[in-house]
Amino acid sequence: xxxxxxxxxxxxxxxxxxxxxxxxxxxxxxxxxxxxxxxxxxxxxxxxxxxxxxxxxxxxxxx
Length: 63
Known about the structure:
The chain is mainly alpha-helical. The protein contains 3 helices and no strands. It has helices at residues 3-8, 11-34, 41-62. The longest helix has 24 residues, at 11-34. The two termini are 23 Å apart.
């Protein structure tokens, strides 16, 4: 997800998406530990997306 897409979502949508992405990330991480993924860069992009959403949520809380 791009930052512009994240800014358009509501806070509730961001929280739901964050929970789903965190679960997806842990599942991928466990799968990668057992057998290597075809595209290990998925982990990096997913981790960065989680960070972007968490940052946006924090920024909204501070305002």
